Amino acid sequence: MPRPKIKKEEEKLKHYIRIRVDEQTLKRLNKMQKMSDCKGLSQLARKILMQEPVQIFHRDISMNGPMEELAMIRKEIRSIGININQQTYHFHTSQSKAARMFYVERTKELYEKIEIKIERLLEITDKLAHKWLQKSSVEKTSGGS
Domains, the chain, ranges and CATH? Predict the structure, then answer.
């Protein structure tokens, strides 16, 4: 997909600047670009040159496990929610009392399932919050001295 055309003439980037850097600087720029919000080296160099802020994203590898588990729980909760919506629809469209009771029981089972998932979700978020607050309090105490 091509990038959108710039309408305003003064915003177009018309002038080409070419620079040379050593291997170490190129590696540092490439590493910085991969960790930043910039799509390419040119965008990163432009931001540095214009003294615009470059957002660098840090990824904590120790968080991979909990984040994967959170993603799985989110997916499961979403599918359970869809099932509950379907059960509710069938409950409202069913004519007999026996069919309605059947859907009530199935929906109750789904709510019990979702309760377990939400408890696990709260456990994980509690641990993440504790870890996050621990890091931020360490940064505050070391930054304030």
Answer: 13-49 (no CATH), 61-144 (1.20.58)
